[in-house]
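DATA SHEET
Item: assembly model
Revision: 1
Owner: S.N.
Input lines:
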Amino acid sequence: MAAEGCVLSDHDADDELARLTQPLPDAEETVRAIYHGAVDAVVVQGPRGPQIVTLKGSEEPYRILVDRMTEGALTVGQDGTILFANRRLAQMTGHPAEDSAGRNLGDFLAEPFADLMRHWLEFPPDRAVRHEVMMCRADGSQFPALLWVGAIVLDQLPALLITATDLTAQKQSEQIAAAERFVRSILEQASDAIIVCDRSGRITHASWAAQELVGRTPIGLRFVEALPLSGMETGAERAVTPVLDAGAIVHHLLAGQSMRNIEVRALWSWRADGFFLLNGGPLLDSHNLTIGCIVTLTDITERRRAEEKQTILVAELNHRVKNILAIVRAVAAQTLVRSLSLSAFKEAFDGRLKALSLAHDILTSIRWGRVELDTLVDQSLAPYRAPGSAPRIVSEGPKVLLPTRAVVPLSMVLHELATNAAKYGALSVDCGSLEVRWGVVERNNGRWVELRWIERNGPPAATNIREGFGTKLIRRSVSYDLDGQADLLFAADGLKGTLAFPILEDPATSSAIATARRGASAGAE
Amino acid sequence: MTTTENTGAPDYNLRLYVAGQTPKSVAAIANLKKLCERHLAGRYNVQVIDLMKDPALAQRDQIIAIPTLIRQLPEPMKRVIGDLSNSDRVLVGLDIEPVAAPGIDT
């Protein structure tokens, strides 16, 4: 420099020296940094200018391994700053990998777990620890994750090495499994039949009661095959008009419609008399899309039978009360007309009411079923049998079951005949006797009862009988109520009569009464 | 990438040279953010230059090793080479007065 003729002051010389020596500390700094591994790339001069050469050391394979691993991985400095985050963590959180470095780990953790992170940073765990946390995504949503946290030393400074496993799928699986267990426990405990179908109408779940109903496991069967049924019209009529079949019901439910309290009738053979209350609705997924349907069937067979029985009984009772009142009214009117005195009326009317009452007692005792003729005759003649003395009343005949509707009129007829015998006929004198014999004969293509009433050794009939209401009641009752005929012969030693009537039973009456009897039996049980 | 953390002209104008996503580059970015937030809050501007994208930019500040941090302002220019994990060295190298940690009586 002096050769150039310049004269430098001491100050200028110092500046020049500083300028010339400046690269030296930079070079020393560079060497130091490379020596300590603080740099991992250098700039070299190539034929086309500067080029970047990365210093891929022996750790490079491990760095790639960490960056590509399927779990999130990150290193965190002592103050919580993320020093490195791999690709998987970026995918999990939605934060780009290059943006993750430099952020605070607290940004990735839901609030209560940020405190936990601070604790780990302050007191680095001696051994690696695992902890379930809720992590935050860039969009603000959260997801469950399992953190593995271990203490390491980076560049002589304490740090944390953390791996994060996204537990979203696992939690969903656990929730599904828990929901499945919950559903199973309901299905096992429910007393109603519960059936779950998929979108094709095939059964995927069924309660224990449903399996009992089908008779085997219905899983895998189509609903219409496993449980063929038809919906019924509801309302006052309770008609048997089917409005829906099983296929239509499933179709409605899968279309998103609910069904409430639909009465259905079982169409499968072993429960053909079964009635059920059907409730159902679509099975929706988390997006409110129909993925199947749920049907519950409550067995209401007994309830429905009871309702039917009650309806029939009320109608029957109404009918009988009206009939009885009509009979009482007619008996009262006719007895009044034919009675010579009030006491005579009282006696006659009282006796006839007792006969009526007796008939009802018998009917009630056998629950309005069929009554044996033998029983009715015995009961009607019982007041006239003298205990202890030689029997002078003989009643005999084969076992004949009377139709229910024949009991009241026949009881009235027997009462009239017996009363007449006691007052004016064979039973009014000590030497008189009475035979009541009956049999069953074929007449008019049907079975008829022929009952013969034969009085012997009684007073002359010409003086002991009045063609009064009693005789009229006998003839009319046999003729109109029993659809038969009565032949009465007033002989010298007593009345000889033949009552003939069919024992065919009216089907409607038979059915109604049979139902009533079943109901009474069920109630007694 | 440029980060400005003040409302007026920054006291410290810093330039960080990195080489893509190499570990040291990533660490240097993180460490620098942390350090600036703590000691230069509101007084700095950081420009991150990725030499992988444009290696020619290395000539401007005569960059040899990456990562390198250059203090442009205040003058004189200073440089710190490495991943900046040793914050004490960085503070000395950049001639920054450390800010005491909250709650510590200095």
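QC remark: Chain A has three domains: 60-171, 179-299, 305-511.
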